[in-house]
Amino acid sequence: MKDTKLFVVMPCYNEEEVLGETSKRMRELFMTMEADGLISPDSKIVMVDDGSRDKTWSIISGLCDSDSIYRGVKLAHNAGHQKALLAGLMTVKDECDCAVSIDADLQDDINVIPEMVKKFDEGCDVVYGVRSKRETDTFFKRFTAEGFYKFFRVMGAEVVYNHADYRLMSSRALNALGEYKEANLFLRGIVPTIGYKSDCVYYERAERFAGESKYPLKKMLSFAFDGITSFSVKPIKIVWTVGLLVCVAAIIAAIYTIISKCLGYSTDGWASLMCSIWFLGGVQLVSVGVIGEYIGKIYKETKARPRYIIEEYRKK
What we know:
By secondary structure, the chain is an alpha/beta fold.
C-alpha cells in the first residue's frame, strides 16, 4: 500500500447548501482511493470557511466532530477566494505529501483526483486540472473566459489554458508557494512560475448541484483585471504606445491645419476640435486609471498586512 498522505483543501463561502453532499462524495472517494492503495489512511479533507454568514462553519464543525477525516479552518473575516485557498494550503503544507485544491461546489470532477495522485507518484510536483471543453457554459461566459486566457498570454504572463484553481501540489511545491509574499494573489498565475515538474489531467465540468455561484460577472471581470495587472506591466507599455501615437497624430493634425490656413482652405473646425478634445481626454483618463491600478497594488504591498487571519483550526 502507498503511504501518500493526501489533503484536499476546499475554500467555502456561504456553502451550507452543498457541504452535506460535497463531504459525502469526497469521503466516498477517499475510501475508494485508500482501498486501491493510492493514499494513506491519514489523508484528510480540509474545508476553509472564508467568513461565511450562513451555517457553513457549524456544518464544518459538526463534520470534524463526527469523523477524523474532516478538518476545518475558520478565517476571522472574509479574505476572498484566493486568500482562503492559500490559508488552507499553508495550514496543511507541513502535514501532507501533496494537496489538491478544489471548490466546494464540486463542479470540477473529483474522479480525476486518483489520476492526479498517480502523476504525483510518478514524480510530478504540480498536476493541473484542465477543462476539456466548455459546453456547460453560456456563449458569453465561454467567449470571455477563453478570451481572458488568450489575452493573459498576450500580456506576457504564464498561465495554463482552461485551468482555474483545481490542481495538485506536492509539499515541496507548497513550500515554494509559501515563499511568495505578495498581497495581490492570483494563484493560477503564480503556480506556473514555481517551475517544478508539472502535468495536466483533463475533465468535463459539471453544473453546480445546489446553491448559487459566488463569482458573478462583475466579480469575474475584477478578478481577471487583477490577475493581468498582477503579472504584467504590458498595460503600462500599451498606454505609453497609445500616448506616443496620439502625439504623432496631433503633430500631423497641426501640420495639416497650418498648411490649410496658409492656402486659405481653413473652415470652422468645431466638430473636429471637439472630437479631438474628447478623444485626448478619454486617453488621458484611461491612462491615469491604468497607472493608478498599479500604484494601488504597490500601496497594498508596502503595507505588508497579513493576507488572512485564522480564527480556529478544527480537527477530531
